[in-house]
Design a protein that fits this description.
The chain has about 90 residues and is mainly alpha-helical. It is about 80% helix and about 0% strand. It is elongated and about 50 Å long. It starts with a helix and ends with a helix.
Length: about 90
């Protein structure tokens, strides 16, 4: 399971971005419900964060650092993504 998660975490983030875009498009153009376009930006932030975390876990970035430092960077990415999503809404 870990190998699958490490390999497809960026794709999962892309799926979240596409899902948010579809929600926005269906609500805006089919249901005629006016939504704030921040849904698109939040999906993009989640996609970027997931892809960067995938690259860290696949040892593409921060190869010289210990696992403790890498985990701290990953926690910082997750908390900053949640914080920016909160302020965007």
């Amino acid at each position: 399971m870990k190998e699958w998660f490490l390999k497809y975490l960026g794709l999962l983030g892309f799926g979240v971005w596409i899902f948010g875009s579809l929600i926005f498009a269906v609500a805006e153009f089919i249901l005629n419900i006016t939504l704030d376009s921040s849904i698109l930006m939040i999906g993009f932030l989640i996609m970027g964060g997931a892809d960067f975390i995938k690259d860290i876990l696949n040892k593409k970035y921060f190869t010289k650092y210990s696992e403790k430092v890498k985990n701290g960077i990953i926690i910082f990415i997750v908390t900053s993504t949640i914080g920016m999503s909160y302020f965007i809404l």
